[in-house]
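Page 37, top half.
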Amino acid sequence: MKKVLALGAVMFLGSIGIANAACTAQEIQDKAQAFQQAAMASAQKDPQKYQQAMDAMQKDLPELQKTNDMNAMCKFYDDWAKKLK
């Protein structure tokens, strides 16, 4: 669970400097929170599915962090929240 929280914080802080994006920093924060809730629910409901999702998600992170694109970050959180539900 600490991985999820740290991941959200790192991704959010890394994206704050981008201006004029369709997805705002507030939206990213809201989506990160929704993702964290989905992750916690998944970890309790099906720990194996949760771990598999976290492992798969780690593969997406380096590219996302390189782009520093707020729209991509919003999509990332939306997609992974759906996958964990």
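Page 37, bottom half:
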Amino acid sequence: MSSQVLEKPNIAKEEIQTPTSSDVLLSDFQIEHRHCLDNGTTIDDFRFEVTNRSEKLNYSGQFFNPKDYNPEQPPVVYTTPWLTELRGFNTLVGKELAKNGLKAISLSPEHPKIGDALNHFLNMALNKEKILERDATSYSALLEYLNDQKIDDTSTVILFGYSRGSMVGIALNSLAQINRRKIIYNEFIDLCLKDSVKSMHLSLGELAINLSQEAINGLIEVRKLPIEDKRHLLNTISTDPGSIIEHISTGIGLFRGETGSFLNNIPDNMTGTVTFFNSSMFNQKDRWEEGLNRFPNIHILNQDGYHLSGVNPQIIQDGIARIALFQKQFSNGIDPIEATNNLYK
């Protein structure tokens, strides 16, 4: 793949107010069960509850510990795509991380009861609540809890995400300085909608056509997958009514263009790789490249494909391979900026 290091212009920094994880109370944390895979990888399923602005939010997650577990290794925090749960495709991603010697923490979107989900929907529709900010703040609270309770050292982490997962990753970067957390590398696949759909000046008819075409192109991509991969992908889609309503609320936030505003609070030394698919209709690739232009250690990769090309196992494996190579360098004492740029030498 080709790589491009972007130049750093002089851009005035707008201050935006974001909550910190100290604003959020983690009221419950429980590891539910443990089981081992044939290759020696250990998975711990867990759930946690946070209270954010007087509302209780429920999440779930998984720890993936490789066979040669190193407690001092910074974990990879993987956040899931839109419309999905931890099972299926997302569990396979966690297993692949562990297979490559990386310990990982996989985090789900919020999965409320139907009544709570409807309240969240109304808050989103009427009050324009930033749902990615809310989830990122909750995730930050969890990471602080894991660190404080010495369950895992999360003071330094790597972020990995595809679609909505990469967009939450941008929000997490915006909170990192406030929460004194070092994010040493980011691996993002097809960031979407830096700005609102409205800013694209599409008529309702054009929007419907583009959404339909994106769905058709995605189905064509999925058809290329082996049967087993198709089964895992189908299994990862949310089916719980409360979660479906929550995903609709998330979709409203994504289409309003929440994500781009978080760039203003991210330090210029952010490092990582962002892969864009050239034929993805809503990734707003040109706008993201312009917005990421002030981060000289973010490398942009342009790939042929559509948004759902991100479920291709090779795309995931390429991203994990970069993370593993970065982690190896970092473990040998190489600075994160140098380790990132070494990936493209």
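Margin note: The domain at 4-342 is CATH 3.40.50.1820 (Rossmann fold).
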